[in-house]
Amino acid sequence: MSAFISQHPNNVGRCSHISNASYAVSSGERGKHIGEQLVKDYLSKAKQLGFRILQFNAVVESNIHARHLYERLGFVQLGTIPGGFRTKDGHYVNICPYYHTLD
Ligand SMILES: CC(C)(COP(=O)(O)OP(=O)(O)OC[C@H]1O[C@@H](n2cnc3c(N)ncnc32)[C@H](O)[C@@H]1OP(=O)(O)O)[C@@H](O)C(=O)NCCC(=O)NCCS
Q1: Closest residue CA from atom 39 of ligand 1
Q2: What DSSP state is assigned to residue 99?
Q3: 13 Cα: distance to centroid of ligand 1 (angstroms)
Q4: Backbone phi and psi for residue 47, each to the nearest 5 degrees, phi listed first
Q5: How far is the CA of 9 from the centre of ligand 1 (A)?
Q6: Residue of 101, 78, 82, 100 whose CA lies nearest to 92
Q7: Measured from the CB, is residue 65 less than 6 Å from ligand 1?
Q8: Quick check: CB of 98 below 6 Å from ligand 1?
Q9: Which of 65, 49, 64 lies closest to 10, judged by CA?
């Protein structure tokens, strides 16, 4: 498998119209716009499913490839959560939440 996507409501109840999704492309296949196609496809699919917003909760600040991709597709950064992500070796690094409305 060269790509993985997980998609689900970001929250329950009165925020259940916000979708969340996660993406991963195999390391040897990155930079070929597979991720771009996956995100673009889900932007329209999520709208069809009735979601109104797509939100990414935990984009690591140093993940410049992912952040550049999301910003190129019109995602808006909501700020920075200091130390919001714990790395495998136990360090805490900043995360940047992003959202995209599904007009
Ligand atoms: C984020 C991710 C899904 C993007 O998938 P992708 O198929 O590489 O994405 P794209 O090719 O559409 O775009 C990636 C951008 O980084 C650039 N890039 C160049 N070399 C790259 C590389 N080795 N790896 C990733 N991106 C690279 C691409 O050219 C593109 O830049 P551009 O916008 O200037 O054209 C993929 O890098 C990945 O699986 N990363 C590890 C898991 C991860 O971080 N997931 C996201 C969590 S928020």
Answers
A1: 24
A2: E
A3: 33
A4: -65, -45
A5: 24
A6: 82
A7: yes
A8: no
A9: 49
Domain locations in the chain as residue ranges: 3-101
Q: What does the pLDDT look like over 7-18, one tens digit per residue?
A: 899 999 999 999
The residue among 27, 37, 28, 32 whose CA lies nearest residue 5 is: 37
Distance CA 7, CA 54 (A): 10
Report yes or no: 75 and 45 within 8 Å, Cβ to Cβ.
no
Domain 3-101 of CATH type 3.40.630.30: yes
Q: Token pair of 70, please?
A: 């999301």
With 0.90 as the threshold, say if the pTM is over it. Answer: yes
- N-term to C-term CA, the chain: 32
